[in-house]
C-alpha cells in the first residue's frame, strides 16, 4: 500500500472509502489539505487501534501518493449491517451513476437495495435520496444552473425555430437587477399552423416535476384526422393552481388559436374549471366547450364508492350514444346505490357522456393524448 499513487486526492479518498467498507471498519479525517491527507481509525483512542494512513501530493502534479500506513485494524466492528460512516452520498453517487443512466426511473428504494447488495450496509432513505440528487447533478448538470440557463435556451429556441412563441413570467429578486423565474409558455409555428387542420379538440393535462425544484409541466395536445397525436403547446409553471392554468389557457387563446367552439378535455382541477368558465379568457361557451376526462372521473367515482359493478355501469352510460340507453344505465345505478346516482347527476351530463355531448368530443373521452406524451417524459421529470 505504501508507495501507491492515485491520480487525484478525490481518487484516493474514494479508494479509502471502498477499502474501509470492505474491511467493515471506519476512519476519521485527521488532516485534509490540498497537499496532505491523514486518516486514522475511528476507534483509535477507544480500542487503541493503530490503523493510520498518510498521503501527500506528488510534487509538480495533482497526484497523491501513500507514504505511511499503519495496519491492519486491531479493533472489532460490533455491527456489520448498520450505516457506515464512509458510506456517504458522494460514494453512492459514483456507484449509482451508471444505474441511473441505464434506467431513468430508478427509485430511491432500488438504490437502497443496491447498497445492501454491493456493500452489505443499510443506508437511510434521506442519504440515498441525497446520493441520487448528486448523481443526477453529475450526469445532467446542476438544478440551479439549469434554471439560470433557461433565458439563453429559449432565445436559442426562437432563433432556431422561426415563428416560435415564448412567453415568460418573472418577479423581482431581493438583490438589485435580479429576477426570479415563475413560469414560461412555448409553442412552435408548425404546431400553430397545423392545428388549423386538426379536429377542434384539445386535451390538457399537467405532469409534476420531482427534481430539486418542484413545479408542473403543462401540456396541450390535439388530434389530427388520422387519429395521430399533435403536440400543440407547453408551459413550465410553479404548480397547478387557478392562476397558472388561467395563464396557460390565456396564452393558448391569444397566441396559438382563436378557433371558436373548441372542445377542451381535462380533469376537474379547480384551476381548469375556473379558467374554462372565465368569460375574459375566451374559453366559456359558446367560444369553447369543456368536457371531463372519463378516466379521471371514473377514478374519482371509484375512490368514493369502491364498486366495480357501478363503475362498469357508469362507463357504459358515458359511452352510450343514445339518451335512452344512458337513462337505462343510470336507473340501474340508482337501484343499486341511490347516492352514486346522485353523485353522477351532480355533474352536468354534457360534460362526460356521448349522448348529451352534441358531438363536440369527436368520441375522444379522455386526456389519454396528454397522458401518452407524459409517459414519454417518465423519469425525466425528476432531472434538471
TrEMBL record:
A Pfam match: MULE
Domain MULE transposase: 201-300
Superkingdom of this protein's organism: Eukaryota
Transmembrane residue ranges: none
Protein name: MULE transposase domain-containing protein
Domain Transposase MuDR plant: 2-66
